[in-house]
Every structure is written in structure tokens, then in C-alpha cells.
Amino acid sequence: MKKRWVPAVLAATAAYSAQAEKPNVIIIYADDLGYGDLQSYGAKNVETPNVNRLAENGVTFTNAHATASTSTPSRYSLLTGEYAWRKPGTEIAPGNAGMIIRPEQYTIADMFKSAGYNTAALGKWHLGLGDKTGQQDWNAQLPTHPGDLGFDYSYIMAATADRVPCVFIEDGQVANWDPEAPIEVSYRGNFPGEPSGTENPELLYNLKSSHGHSDAIVNGIGRIGFMKGGGKALWKDENIADSITEHAIEFIKKNAKTDEPFFMYFATNDVHVPRFPHDRFRGKNQMGLRGDAIVQFDWSVGQIMNTLEELGIADNTLVILSSDNGPVTDDGYIDYAEELLNGHSPTGGLRGGKYSAYEGGTMVPLIVSWPEKIKGNQTSDALISQIDWLASLASIVDTRIPKGGAPDSRNYADALLGKDKVGSDWVIEQANNNSLSLRTSDNWKLIEPSDGPAMVPWGPKIETGYRDVPQLFNLSSDNGEEKDVAAQNPEKTFELLKTLREVKEGKKQ
User: Fold this and answer.
1) How far apart are CA 98 and CA 262, in angstroms?
2) Contact residues for 465 (Cβ-Cβ < 8 A; gap 6+)
């Protein structure tokens, strides 16, 4: 938008008017935060006062779902409004993956841009960078990055904290790039002379690996994949939350001075492994590093909320807080997360967890706050899926999605804002083996047949939910997902299998 000179008083009035017309929008997207991990959802042994404050200003949802029980497909679906299972190559991405969302695809950032918003992506990305997998030059401008997907500004981790490269990428270039330590990355083999967690476990002075995560060593912690160089650009895990929060606050302050609203996708690494929070968050609860990481996440939420309030824009800022998938305790590092639960249930008593087809894999916390439009201290049982956020937000900011854009996203704006307490008729959930489940608003859950082990095989004590026959659960019954009732309800099983098939074939939305 071109700027023209106007008197200061008129400029301030115009800015206030523009802010009043459309809300600023912030998505706070936690990583591996379970349905039961927040105090407002009944968590034990951990206090989350800032998230509590957000809930007091808005709606707490009891039936909200990520589209997948793992990170990359959930993020892909949220940002594109297309189910990840429709597109090959959207499984958990390596750190050197080529960009999974292509520049020609319509994204949530494109939608906000069309509505006059300034846009930013901060924190965990895990959707690939550059044009082709394994061919990035990390010492130069990457040819494709979030700037090609509608984001005006980005300060991101290439993948996630347990994968190399362990550097931040700012607007397509390694932040604080060190010419004395050029970066090389490989997911095939180590570089000559470089230590690894497998061969040099004595160098894992910050966290030791429980399974996997024993390739490159950065900051005394083993990673997935091999890396050489980095120097001054390498992050310190204990400072990750501070870094992305600081950049988020800078973006908010910069845009609060303009006459344009902003959209910020703020994706934290908490509580994903490796859990290595800053010293000031250590020992805040009984659950060790995983609990401390939840406290650190809550701090980030508080910093953003405080900034909005100090700038006088909190009332007209729509904040959506959720998680990318369900929780996992032992996911590759010896941090005693399993042993130190002390009665806490990360899933809130749901079966399964991260990777799983059961509800613990995709049922996530969701809190929506917009003080100017939403009455506080509400609870909603509406069935909500993150796939529908794009279309719902487009409706809220009054912009049109182009034909073919966000093909699976449906408008449930009233449900997201707490006005409609029913929400969607059904949502689709994706497990780690790409099998699908159908969850209905009247509390039926169908898991389609698939191959795979009954338990996650590489370490976590999590049931997968994989079976070679359809499974049907009545979630409103006392048995929930404990009792498969498909044999007793053949007509309902067939009905939901038919609905799932029609969705997969594109005949039903």
C-alpha cells in the first residue's frame, strides 16, 4: 500500500479506523503439546498462568483436532487448507527437505495478504526450504522460502530442534551466517573428522540420546542428520524460545505503527525434543525438563500478550492457540519425561499419543481470544479441525478464496468464535502410517484398516491404533476408544467408511 502524507492526528485516526475494521491475527502453534498439558485443561504439576489468562479472555474448546498426529502434515494442512494425505511427500520432513508447499499453491498467508495484511512466520517451520531435497546451499540465499508463500517476513528453524541444520533462517538466508564456518548438511553420512553421538557419546554433555538422535552433535546434544560448520550462526537450545519470541515482538511493534493489520504464524519448538529450556525456567515443577518446557511456552505466550496490551491493540487482536499433534514423552532423549509425570497425563486421559490413530494423537488444546468480539470464560464442545481455519479466517477478515485454493477447508467461523457450539459434522485425522480416521460430531470414531505394529516400534510407549480391519468406537460411552464396537454396529461402520471414501475421492466436503 502506497503511503501519502497526512497530518499526524488524521494519520492516527486512520490507523485506528483500519485496526478497528479488521483484527490482527496471531496463531500460536505449540509443538507436541498434549490435550492435557495446560492448566486450563486440567494439567497436574505445571502452572500456565498466561495461557489461563488467554482462556479467561476467550473460548476454550474441548473437541478440537489437528489434521495429523505428526508435525509436517499438520502444518501443511493448516497453512494450505488441503489435507496432507492428498499430496505425496508430506510425511515428517528431514531438515534438508525441499520446500513441500510450492510457490504456486495458495496459502493462509496469501489469503491474509489479499485482505491487506502484513504477514510473518516465526519459529518452527518443518516444511522444507529450497527447491530440491538435499541440494540447498546453506551459505547463500535460498531460492525458495516462506517469502514465496505469502509471508512478508520469516525467522524460522529449517525443520525442528532435533534435526540439522541447527541455525535460524531469516528471509531465506542463514541468520548471523559465519563466513569462517561455511555450512554443510547431509542425511546420508557424516563428514570426515566430525564427531557423532554414536561414536563420541562423551560429547553429549547437555542431553544424551535414548534412541536415534545420535548423528551430529550441536551444543552438546545429538541430532538427526549430519552437519559441518555453522560457527556463530548455530543456535543454543536454551535460547530458542527467547530468539523467536524477541523477533515476534519486534514484528508486532513494527506493524502496530502502520495503518495495516498483521498476521503472525508463531510456531514454538516447545515441548518438542530436545527439551533444553533456559535456566530461568528450570525446576518450576515436578516433571523435569518437559514440564519446564511447558512453562517456557507459557512465558512466550505471556510476552506476546503483554506486548499487545502495552501497544493498546489487544482488544482487536484475534489470538488462536493450539498444538500440531498429541504428546510424546520419550521421543529420543534421556530427560526422564516418562518417569517424572507424577500423575500428570499429557493426553488428558485420551488413548494413544503422537504418531497414533487414537484420539491422543490429534485431539489438541484450542483457545481462541478476541476481546472485542468474543465473550471471555467460554467453553465450547464444537467439533473443530485445523483444516478449516483458513476458510474460517477468510470469512472473518472478509476476503475471497480463489477457485481451487484451500480445497478441503470449510467455513466454520461461527464455531471458531464461540457462537456455534456444534461445529463440523465430521473431521478427518491422519496417523503416522498415513491411515485415516473419521470423527463425527455425534461422537463416533472410525479408524480405517491399515498395516503396522500395535505399538510405536522405536521407543515411545504409544499405541498406534493400526489394525487390518475397520474399528468403530462410541466416544460418548464409558469405554470410549477402549472398546471396538464395529461388529455390533455394521451399518454405522459401513456409513462412516462410505463417508471417508467419498472424502478421499473428493466427492464430499
Assistant:
1) 28
2) 351, 352, 356, 357, 358, 361, 431, 437, 447, 471
Interhelix angle 240-256/288-310, nearest 10 degrees:
10
* Residue 9 in this model has a pLDDT that exceeds 90: no
Residues contacting residue 250 through CB under 8 Å, at least 6 positions apart? none
7 confidence band (pLDDT: 50, 70, 90): very low
Q: pLDDT tens for residues 101-111?
A: 999 999 999 99
Upstream peptide bond of 103 is cis (omega within 30 degrees of 0): no
What is the H or E stretch that residue 321 is in? Answer: strand 317-323
Backbone φ and ψ of 8, nearest 5°: -60, -40
DSSP 143-193: SSSGGGGT-SEEEEESS-TTBS--BEEETTEETT--TTS--EEESS-PPTT
pLDDT in tens, 31-75: 999 999 999 999 999 999 999 999 999 999 999 999 999 999 999
Average the pLDDT over each of 122-126, 283-287, 307-311, 314-318 and give the range with the smallest value: 283-287
The Cα–Cα gap between 44 and 341 comes to 9
- Report yes or no: 150 and 109 within 8 Å, Cβ to Cβ: yes
Name 217's bridge partners: 222
Location of C-alpha cell 466416544: 475
